[in-house]
Specification:
By secondary structure, the protein is an alpha/beta fold. 36% of the residues lie in helices and 26% in strands. Strands 6-7-8-3-9-10 form a six-stranded mixed beta sheet, sandwiched between helices. Strands 2-1-4-5 form a four-stranded antiparallel beta sheet, with helices on one face. The protein is globular, with a radius of gyration of 18 Å. The chain starts with a strand and ends in a 5-residue tail after the last helix. The model has no long low-confidence stretch (mean pLDDT 93).
Length: 250
């Protein structure tokens, strides 16, 4: 079976700095893949490579290949905007528009031409999916910025889901949240696996162990080890992986 995402000898440089160096891995369809490693190790750069967001930064150079359903994402016929719709990304900090909850959820579909009742139906669907409808459904015209930190992050996920992506890229989605809000997000990620392939960058080793089917360990822009989560955590092949998992190196 063709993997939903695949990186082949992927190298990303920002000016003279190498953020990723020759990374090769495949993301199986319908699975959760965690990307762990120290800060600055390349986790976010890898996620951004999967939906062509690195190229939005000045001075970036990308070599190697990234494929989505077997198609080279940097091919001449590929529309980068469509790539970012089908491979949606949620960032570490909740990035909301200073508008209502409803306006945030339907921003993308409205820009794509959807109107009226279809937007309301879509908003309810995705807010239910992230567990927000029961909390905000009676007041979706209130400002989104009034929500708690955990609710804001779930709203960002709902906004991404409204675009009907096939893949979700989650970049440290719980790093700024308290334990209760983190648990809600983790439960949500687990439920979304039914309909989406998910790539999760996390600094939390335990979070990766709880949530993912496969785990990649990145350090210094290099892919140190990649494999089934249980095997990687219980019997790592590389000493550097073992040192990171046991906390001897950060």
């Amino acid at each position: 079976m063709i993997p939903v995402l695949a990186a082949e000898d992927l190298t990303v440089r920002f000016g003279r700095r190498t953020a990723l160096a020759g990374v090769t891995l495949e993301v199986p369809r319908g699975r959760i893949v965690s990307v762990i490693g120290p800060s600055g190790g390349g986790k976010t750069t890898l996620l951004r490579a999967f939906n062509r967001m690195n190229e939005l930064k000045p001075g970036v150079t990308t070599t190697g290949t990234v494929r989505f359903n077997g198609v080279d994402l940097h091919g001449d016929e590929v529309d980068a905007v469509e790539v970012r719709r089908r491979i949606g990304m949620v960032f570490q900090q909740a990035t909301l528009f200073p508008r209502s909850i409803l306006d945030n959820v339907v921003f993308g579909p409205r820009a794509g031409g959807h109107t009226g009742d279809k937007l309301l139906e879509l908003a309810e669907e995705v807010l239910v999916a992230v567990g927000l409808w029961s909390e905000v459904g009676e007041d979706i015209d209130r400002p989104a910025m009034q929500l708690s930190a955990g609710q804001r992050q779930r709203l960002c996920i709902a906004r991404t889901l409204a675009l009907r992506p096939e893949v979700l890229l989650l970049d440290e989605p719980t790093s700024a949240l308290d334990p209760a809000a983190t648990a809600r997000i983790e439960s949500l990620v687990h439920s979304l696996k039914r309909d989406h392939t998910i790539v999760l960058a996390t600094h939390g080793r335990r979070q990766a162990a709880r949530l993912s089917d496969f785990t990649a360990y990145l350090a210094g822009g290099e892919l140190i080890e990649y494999g089934p989560t249980e095997s990687l955590f219980t019997n790592p092949r590389d000493r550097r992986t073992e040192s990171y998992l046991t906390g001897r190196i950060e």
